[in-house]
Amino acid sequence: MLYSDRKIIEMRLPLNEKVLKGLKAGDEVLLSGVLFTARDQAHQRLAALLRKKVSLPFDLKGQVIYYCGPTRTPPGKAIGSCGPTTSSRMDSLTAPLLRAGVIGMIGKGRRSEEVRKLIRKHKAAYFLATGGTGAFLSKRVISAKAVFLKELGPEAVYRLVVKDFPVIVGIDSRGEDVFDR
Amino acid sequence: MERRKNNTMKRLTEKIISATIARLCVEANTCFRKDMKEALVRAINSESNPRAKSILKELLENAALAKSEKIALCQDTGLPVVFAEIGCDVDVRGLDLNRAINKGVEEGYRRGYLRESIVSDPLDRRKGSKFSPCIIHFDFGLHKGLRLTVLPKGFGCENKTQLKMFVPNTPIVEIKDFIVSAVKAAGPDACPPYVVGVGIGGSADYASLLSKKALLRHIGKRSAQALVAGIEKELLADINKLDIGPMGLGGKTTAFGVNILTYPTHIAGLPVVVNISCHVLRSAGAVLR
Question: Which residues numbered 23-82 in A keep a CB inside 8 Å of some CB on B?
Fold first, then answer.
């Protein structure tokens, strides 16, 4: 069994090529540090802005993008329910973000062959978070702030500070895919 | 709340309908369905793949946290699908039921800190999203009271819906293959373990409605028709051999249940719709009398 050793790797964000090199598909990782959320509409907008070479209010270089649109934030909490959305919808808009320096993505489900090759080319990584555990994952978020495209509500870009955010390596920097079983 | 009329007809108000819908929206999104929890516990006990087992335990922990923290089970609080079945002893004359139900959805989603997941224009999505409108299915029956059921349907799994118009004498094995292939196509993407709702018969639109209604049936209960109950059991066994498992990472828990509803259909056709639910199958119901 590929995942028999349940060793959990702790990692600080932002990530870099060197630390990603040490990860292989199927590894369990706890991420701590800064993540940026972006899902369907944010991807459309970011891709369009990058195409026009407009500078963004935050630097994508070395960042990890989390495919997530949280619920509203209940009083006294850092964030509402905040699990991953289906990654394949972002496949066609992933290339410009990787070119802009994004080094990791978090979502759920399979990626296209094109994305797998792009991940290998950019020596990046794709992580899986457990879908449908938005309440559980919200406890691993220390703070959340909408930083871009605020008018999109749940689809805005949020800057999250996370602590021990649990993910599994879906596609590693060599392009190995956990779903190729 | 309600006024008796002729001692038999019960008069409902828009206010009580809105308040009930609001409560059901919060309940469905934060309290894990009892039959789902039971199925999850059974799966934890029978799953032998260690990673699958640990993911299933995470789902149970998620449900406990959602309840204690009063937070949504999943950030996709769905497209609320509301079933309103008007009984033979309720008087709804003069009421705007569409308005009452949508108002309830907005109230509930706001109060529960749920998510605005509805785009007003499906072709122009730049303006952001809202809590409503929801989808409403009205029906009339001989039961008493107004039955209200809210099913917030997440769209990761709704996107995996499949419809096929079979020819009348298609062997059952081909229909079963179609249903299994729909689950296979959903694969790891739509948050397995799934609950598979199937509608067989009626028209294309009615089979779709049946496939959604099938998700409301207790997942431990089989169809009352022996033939259909047999197909449900065989399908569940076949699906659980696919080794998709929790989050698609392998294991024998690919689905918790298969629920099929059938209806008479035309001599020339045999519509079949597969509507998949993720492991966070949510619904809540109440009867207003």
Answer: 40-41, 68-74, 77, 80-82
Helix crossing, B226-239 with B172-186: angle to 10°? 40
- Measure the CA–CA gap between A17 and A3, rounded to whole angstroms: 23
Nearest CA of chain A to the CA of B118: how many Å? 11
Complex ipTM: 0.94
Which tens digit of pLDDT belongs to each residue from A76-96? 999 999 999 999 999 999 999
Residue with tokens 């689950």: B183
**Among the options A26, A36, A38, A43, which is catalytic?**
A43
In this structure, what DSSP letter does residue A86 have?
B
- Whether the Cβ atoms of residue B199 and residue B261 lie closer than 8 Å to each other: yes
Q: Strand B162-166 to strand B146-153: parallel, antiparallel, or no bridges (unpaired)? A: unpaired
Instruction: Quote the pTM value.
Output: 0.95
A110 touches chain B (CB under 8 A): yes
Mean pLDDT within B226-251: 98
What φ, ψ does residue A34 adopt, rounded to 5°? -100, 135
Instruction: Give me the domains of chain A, ranges plus CATH numbers.
Output: 8-175 (3.20.130.10)
